[in-house]
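Task: encode each sequence below as C-alpha cells.

Item 1
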Amino acid sequence: MKTKQPSIAIIIAPYHEKIAEKMYKTAVAECEARSYKIVEIVTVPGCFEMPLAVANVLDAHKLDGVIVLGMIEKGETLHGQMMAGSVFEALIDLQLDTRVPIGMGIIGPGATPKQGLVRAEGSARQAVEAVAAMIANK
C-alpha cells in the first residue's frame, strides 16, 4: 500500500538574512529527508505577517503541515515580546481551527542576532520534527 506524500508549506521572514538562510536550508533538507512535498514557499516581511500568510496558504492548498521560520530579536523595549505573544497565539489558533500542524521555527523573542545564528539550524529542524510528529499521530 502506497502512503501519501505529505504536503508542506514553508513561511519565512528573512529580516535577519543570514539566520533565515540557515533556517531555510535546514528546513528544506529536513523535509526532503522525509520525502515531504514542499508545495509553496512564502516570504513575508517579518514574523508579524506570518499568521496571515499561513491562513492564505491553508486556504490555497490542502496541506499536511506548515513550517514557520524567523526571528524576533531582543530590542530595547517590550515590542518584541508583545508581538511574539500575538503571533504565537494567532498561529496556535490557526492550528486548532484547521487541524493542520504548524512547526514553530521562530527564534525569540529576546534573542540577539548572534544567538539567532547559533540557534538557526536547531530551531528549523525542531519545527520540521514537530510537524512530522503530528503528521505521524493523525
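Item 2
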Amino acid sequence: MVHEEKGRFCEVLVSLFSPPHREIIREMLEGELLNFFKLATETWQGNDFVGNGLFLDGDPEKIFEELSSEYRRLFEDVGSETISLVESAYKPWTLDAFCPLPFAKEKGLLMGDSALHLLALYQHCGLEIVGPLRGIPDHLILELEFLSFLYQHATDQEIKQFIEDHLDWIPLLQKACEDAQAHPFYLTLVDLLRRFIHSEKERLEKEFHGEKEIYSEDR
C-alpha cells in the first residue's frame, strides 16, 4: 500500500472502531469494505485473508442491534470488565520519577503521559479535538485519525516514531478482547489493526536499519 491507501485504511478502521451505524453495516454486507480490506492487506499478509470475522450475513437491522449491543458490552458499559480504547489506561499514569502523586505509577487511569504528549502533537500540527472525545486525546479513534493524517503530511521517520510511542498497546487491547470473548467481528478488527501496525514497524525498521530517530514536541 502507498501512503494514501494506508491513510484510507486507518480511516476505515476509525469507522469500525466507532459505535456501529447502519451505513457501515450496509457497506460490509454489500462487500465494499471486505474487498477494500482484501486488497489493502495483500501486501502484508499475502492472499490468505484473515478477516473472516468481518463477513456479515443476514438481516441488516439484526446485525446492527447485535453489534451495537456487543460494542456497549465491550467498550461502553461501566464496570471492571469493560475494555478501554484509551492508551493511557494500559500504561503507568506517568514515567516522571519525581511525580509526588501516590497513583503516579498506576495503570487504568486517563490523561497520562501519552495523552499529554498527543495534545502537544495535535497542537504542533494545528489540529483541534472536537466532540465527545475531546477529553481523551489518546483514544484509539483519535490515534488512528492522527496516523491517517501523518500518512498524508509526515515523513516515514515521524510515522515510525508515532507508531513506536503510541500504538505499542494494541497487543494488550487484543488480549483484553480475547479474554472477554468478544464477537468475531471485533476480534478480527483488532487483529487486523495489530497486523497492520506490526507490518509497518517491520517496514520502517528496515527502512531506517533499526535506528531510532528522536521525535519531540519541539521538533
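Check on item 2: Residues 94 and 100 are 11 Å apart (CA to CA). Residues 184-207 form the longest helix (24 residues).
End of task.
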